[in-house]
Write a structure and sequence with these properties.
By secondary structure, the chain is of the alpha+beta class. The protein has 2 domains: 129 residues, 2-Layer Sandwich (Yope Regulator, Chain: A); 109 residues. Helices cover 43% and strands 20% of the residues. Strands 1-2-3-4-6-5 form a 6-stranded antiparallel β-sheet. β10, α7 and β11 form a beta-alpha-beta unit. The longest helix has 41 residues.
Amino acid sequence: MNMTYEMIEQDFREKVGSKIRLISEGIDRYRVFTPFLFDDGDHLSIVLKREQSHWALSDEGHTYMHLTYDLDEKDIQKGVRQKIIGNSLSVFAVEDREGELFIRIENDRYGDALFSFTQALLKISDIAFLSRERARSTFLENFRALLTETVPDDRRIFDWHDPQRDPLKNYTVDCRVNSMKRPLFIYALPNDDRTRDATIAMHQFEKWEIPFRTLAIFEEQETINRKVLARFSDVCEKQFSSLGSNRERIAHYLKESIAN
């Protein structure tokens, strides 16, 4: 190492950020603390270590391990996710050594290497977000498929709004089931934001004195903020905590509602 510990830390701070810290973990090994986080709040894991005749930055396999919290390992190695990882490694000159991501330090350019390495790790971590967005999309697709199979075409309207009171579609219903004394308003709820929107819409329908009943189908109810869920539960008549495990119960409830 041609540069001292203090010089390397200063180079890191100048090229990457003032909050970078370098802590010794033994001979020729340093933990690099950065302010960069995965989207779940975990810090990137980065080590500066000597390997034979050169120095390198390594994640020691942590990035891929972190991704497997949301993804199966085989899903990381194919399709769009594989392309994102491959492009990120190529653009930032990072190598994949059987799951360990690392970058060699060339010509004492420690700060430049750390900048490239953190950018690569953050880009790769984006595939977890891609997975959750795809899961959300699949949930909404499955929701529509279930209602299409269960409710006759002439009894349902997807993305309904009141054309007289709400021409701008500020208060929508994911699916309205018609031809009954009180139409059934059905909501598909994958997250806190959609649950809040549904709560606001139902309050507005009550103010307008629109007669209706409500049914909520959550992607995973246990992930919804407790306060958000409590306010929603005050105005919602019937709820199912998830779609996948309650598919038959939901279909039965819909058929009974239609029949009555």
